[in-house]
């Protein structure tokens, strides 16, 4: 199934516009940059400061779990390594493929923003989807890498938010 979806994307989605736009979209997710910027914007706002700090913590935890623990443990080669000869539209990323760090940070941030304010969450989920999709489009992740990264991100966010609420409630007693 992974290869079927992957091949469909590679064979049907490439054109002059998508080959131009998706490298820019993927760069927005590099090192979680867009999400870190969103968190800092929230920290500046008194109303959303707590959510911004929470988002920064969630991004750190998601990075540690995905990039530092799961990727080396699972050690799945990237598609361009397994299927050499494909012309990449971006510089070849280092490291392993599973889970996608771009998808993990994007969906962790989108879920956190959605919990903070539904009006933030809807465009954040749209951008998270585009960033995650760009990784398969650009031949650097399999669809299952994206799915696992998205699940990791949402789970990290959900657990971190629940833990934070529990700790905050407990500290008021």
How would you describe this protein?
The chain is mainly α. The chain has eight helices and no strands.
Structural descriptors:
173 residues; mainly alpha; cell membrane; hydrolase; transmembrane; undecaprenyl-diphosphatase activity
Helix and strand layout, with pairings?
Blueprint: H1 2-12, H2 16-28, H3 33-44, H4 49-74, H5 79-82, H6 101-116, H7 118-137, H8 143-172
Helix pairs in contact: 2-7, 3-4, 4-6, 4-8, 6-7, 6-8
Subcellular location: Cell membrane
Transmembrane segments: 53-75, 120-140, 146-167
Keywords: Cell membrane, Hydrolase, Membrane, Transmembrane, Transmembrane helix
**What is the approximate shape?**
globular
Nearest-angstrom radius of gyration? 17 Å
Give the SSE order as H and E letters.
Answer: HHHHHHHH
Number of domains: 1
Q: Please indicate the percent range of residues in DSSP E strands (runs of 2 or more).
A: under 5%
Please provide a brief summary of the model:
It is a multi-pass membrane protein. The chain is mostly helical and 173 residues long.
């Amino acid at each position: 199934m992974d290869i079927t979806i992957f091949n469909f994307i590679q064979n049907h989605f490439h054109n002059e516009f998508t080959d131009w736009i998706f490298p820019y979209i993927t760069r927005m997710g590099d090192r979680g940059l867009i999400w870190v910027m969103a968190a800092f914007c929230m920290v500046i706002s008194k109303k959303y400061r707590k959510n911004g700090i929470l988002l920064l913590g969630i991004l750190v935890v998601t990075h540690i779990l995905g990039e530092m623990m799961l990727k080396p443990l699972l050690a799945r080669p990237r598609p361009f390594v397994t299927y050499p000869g494909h012309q990449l539209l971006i510089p070849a990323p280092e490291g392993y493929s599973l889970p996608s760090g771009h998808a993990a940070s994007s969906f962790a941030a989108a879920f956190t923003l959605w919990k903070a304010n539904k009006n933030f969450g809807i465009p954040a989920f749209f951008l998270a989807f585009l960033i995650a999709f760009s990784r398969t489009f650009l031949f650097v992740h399999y669809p299952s890498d994206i799915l696992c990264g998205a699940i990791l991100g949402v789970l990290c966010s959900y657990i971190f938010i629940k833990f934070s609420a529990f700790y905050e409630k407990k500290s008021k007693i």
